[in-house]
Amino acid sequence: MDLLLTAAVTVGLVVASASHIASIALAMRRAAKNRKRPRGRAPTGVSIVRPVCGLEHRIGATLASSFQIGHPSYEVIFCVAAADDPVVPIVQRLIREHPEIPARLLVGGGGGGPNPKLANLMKAWDVAAHDWIVLADSNVLIPPDYLDRLFARWSERCAVVCSPPVGIDARGCAAELEAAFLNTFQARWQLAGDALGFGFAHGKTMLLRRSDLACEGGLAALAREIAEDAAATKMARRRGRLVRIVDEPFPQPLGRRSFTGVWQRQLRWARLRRLSFPGYFYAELPAGGVFPFLLAAALATAGVLPWAGVVAMMLAWYGAEALLASAFAWPLRVRTPLFWIARDLLLPVLWLHAWVGSGYEWRGNPVDLHPTT
Q1: How far apart are CA 276 and CA 272, in angstroms?
Q2: Which of 188, 230, 237, 284 is the right S-S partner for 276, CB 3.0 to 4.6 Å?
Q3: What is the pLDDT of residue 216?
């Protein structure tokens, strides 16, 4: 290996390693701040809107958590597309069991459009009682301080406060692989990006102010993109506003997953990111450990770096992820690093596959992807 190539490979390795460590350090700093920062006080009057569709793992617990929030004045609106959906009896029972919380179930197709979840939510937007609205997916396990943690990140410069999911209760290898994508990779990069001032909205939980969206056309403004979180991010940036991420993301119980389901879900999200933010998507190709380790192996083969150094680098790389998981008390087992390695091996394959195909299926609804403007 000549001197110029050696220098280029070394620089690439240093940049990749520094980016990895820096992103983890930024995310861990958020965990430390979260312990010290006083919770924001949520304003009186918040509407929590939850789309429901089908039966998911621990659906009774995730929906019941809607009624256990420590806040004096909030309502819960559940939205379902079809009256015969099997989740309907569960929602109706929970509403009966918690008469102290204003709650209702809205049934019907909603506003249409290419995004099935957003179409399901449309019917709740204008009937919600409050200006502050939280859109929360049905599989989010809401903690008692949910609203306080959201409003702790709000400022007048904000347009959206959101939370990526953190996978918990992973049962089986496929679910642990999904947690490897969600936790120390995707949630970590979103926390790091927010710390640097360029947060991206995530549709799992989004806090919005209805009056802010009124000049954009209301909730329908989020239908301008195939993904409502991408539309929210672009809307915020057009207006010179911020998207902020909660300091400690909210959990999603995973249960048992299939490898096919995990792959299809990650591929769907990758395609959406490619269409919505192509510039950022290009930067995802070298993410993960594959390229840095290939560069380190090239240096070791050339005799520039000892093979023991490659092993030490691998231990440090995934050891840093373990420190991150420990800092947030995210699920961490002895075999968890094996799923981080599997995830990193899949990332380049996922990136390449994201360029192929023009659609996906979301809970039985076919969705056609198309380039955004």
Answers
A1: 6
A2: 230
A3: 86
